Amino acid sequence: MYNYIKEKKYFQRNAAIALWNLGDSANVSDLATAMKDTEELVRGYAAWALGKIGGRSAKQILEENMSRETSESVKTEIREALQKMI
Fold it and tell me: Where does the source fall among the domains of life (predicted)?
């Protein structure tokens, strides 16, 4: 069985989910930091959480990160998050 506890990216993913669950736009800056993480799993969940939280700041962060994102799966998360904000 794989030991997920050894992988920092899974903690960061769970943190992004927890920040969304709090539903506080004050967490947007933490998610913006997560959008710059080296792990695409973390960036993808940060994009998802930003889309769920919504708001002008979250939208701006997603748009800025779309242009520099290299992972197609993260780009998909960003597109879906932006579509939900319309």
Answer: Bacteria
